[in-house]
Write a structure and sequence with these properties.
About 30% of the residues lie in helices and about 15% in strands. The protein has 10 helices and 14 strands. Helix 4 packs across helix 9 and helix 8 crosses helix 9.
């Protein structure tokens, strides 16, 4: 049960820790500003930019933070290893899914970390209450354990072009994937990784309320692209929306263990 409904959260508000992971790529919106104006009661803001390891030699990217930094962050915002955590965003689910991936990578029990299906949009559509009150935080002591098998690095992606050990799905738009649309990040060329397959993350989400499409529809989408089994890796612009596809695939394949190319196109497509 990775996804929880608005009804479930409303009935369990006092039993979980809630994180608002809102983030936007374009500068016309600011996730923290939006959080300060309205958020679900007792939600704590999770800053994707601050909780990513920004590689200075690459265009705008979101590598995983160091283990000690993750432990420090979760301890500061009062998350313990035994906490049930519900993550939402106001960003079309993209950063709640990325935050979920980071929790799994750093060893949080998968049965204790959830995503609010539909995020803040569906919560508001269904008359969920919001507030601008500051959330009181009591610090904790968090201990992480890295699951390094959940990520791929550039050399493994390059090796796979010839060896074809796994399928690589790209969550970017078809225009960016084909090279017809300009990349939003400066210093990154248009195009895609040889042999990869495009499935825009937005095609897995219902635009009316930002909830995931049902299991049958998602299954048909993956099967139509020849995606079956567990040897599947997801990529995107900077390993954020890749997590949306990863979650969608885990809905249709209960045995799948999430695997992300962490450098994604911001690394692979860097203009040298």
């Amino acid at each position: 049960m990775t996804l929880v409904s608005t009804e479930w959260l409303n009935n369990n508000l006092s039993k979980v820790k809630i994180l608002d992971a809102s983030w936007h790529l374009l500068p016309d919106r600011n996730g923290f500003d939006e959080y300060q104006k309205k958020h679900i009661e007792n939600a704590i803001f999770f800053d994707l930019e601050k909780n990513s390891n920004q590689q200075k030699n690459l265009p705008h990217n979101h590598f995983l933070p160091e283990k000690k930094d993750w432990e420090e962050t979760l301890s500061k915002i009062g998350i313990s290893n035994t906490d049930k955590v519900v993550i939402y965003d106001n960003s079309d689910l993209i950063t709640s899914c990325r935050c979920w991936f980071q929790f799994l990578y750093f060893g949080h029990d998968s049965k204790l970390v959830f995503i609010l299906d539909g995020g803040l949009k569906k919560w508001r559509l269904e008359s969920g209450k919001v507030t601008n009150k500051e959330t009181k935080i009591i610090s904790s002591k968090y201990f992480a354990k890295e699951n390094k098998h959940m990520v791929k690095i550039k050399s493994q992606i390059e090796e796979n072009i010839n060896k074809n050990k796994f399928k690589l799905l790209d969550a970017r738009s078809k225009g960016r994937f084909s090279g017809k649309a300009k990349e939003p990040r400066p210093g990154v060329r248009s195009g895609s990784i040889e042999g990869s397959i495009c499935l825009p993350y937005s095609e897995c989400i219902d635009p009316k309320d930002n909830s995931f499409l049902n299991k049958k529809i998602l299954s048909e989408k993956f099967k139509s692209l020849g995606i079956t089994g567990n040897n599947v890796v997801f990529s995107c612009g900077s390993s954020v929306t890749a997590s949306v596809l990863g979650l969608a695939y885990s809905i249709v394949n209960n045995d799948y263990i999430l695997n992300i190319y962490i450098g994604s196109w911001s690394e692979y497509g860097k203009i040298k």
